[in-house]
Amino acid sequence: MIDRRRILTRIVQSFSIIGAFFVSYPFIKSSSIFEKRYLELEVDLSDLSTDKTKRVSWLGRPVIIARRSRQEIAAIKESQEELKDPFSERSHQPDFAKNKKRSMRDDIFVAFGNCTHLGCIVKDSPDEVGTRFRCPCHESSFDGAGRVFRGALAPKNLEIPNYGFISKNILLLTVVK
């Protein structure tokens, strides 16, 4: 004969297990293991050639990664008179980027691709000498280190995210807590 009590007990146990899973799922998902993966992004730079730019999306914002030529590196170190903030004193960047080149390495430049005026996404501008990026909305110009030129509407240089290098050609974008 069928024991009703045993069947009802199994049904209640099953619903309890399923309910426990649904209650604990948000806590498991928000644990630091999953959060860390969301806050980091590895970018392979092996396919990035000189004077080229790679664009990735990270934390809902565009990030531009550019490989600079020797001529561009030399121009960054020399030019200062025509820039609004040549030493990036008013700009947002990590401590390692507080230098003329605004990067860890001379040959790689990393910045958020939003103009500091109204947030438009900057485009490459290889045609003009000294200008590497240009805002298509209001024509603000930026050099190879993301520093804004005088006379532009953008008030600050491009924002630099926190990043590091895992290897020569692997860049890791990270969030500092």
Relevant terms:
alpha+beta; 177 residues; 3 helices; three-stranded antiparallel beta sheet; elongated; 2 domains
Write a structural description.
The chain is an alpha+beta fold and 177 residues long. The protein has two domains: 4-30; 41-173, Rieske [2Fe-2S] iron-sulphur domain (Rieske Iron-sulfur Protein). Helix content is 24%, strand content 21%. It has helices spanning 4-29, 32-39, 70-78, and strands at 41-44, 53-58, 61-67, 108-112, 123-124, 133-134, 141-142, 163-167, 170-173. The strands form three sheets. It has a three-stranded antiparallel β-sheet with strand order 1-9-8. Strands 2-3-4 form a three-stranded antiparallel β-sheet, with no helix packed on it. A three-stranded antiparallel β-sheet has the order 5-6-7, with no helix packed on it. A hairpin with a 6-residue loop joins strand 6 and strand 7. The longest helix has 26 residues, at 4-29. It is elongated. The relative contact order is 0.16. The model has no long low-confidence stretch (mean pLDDT 83).
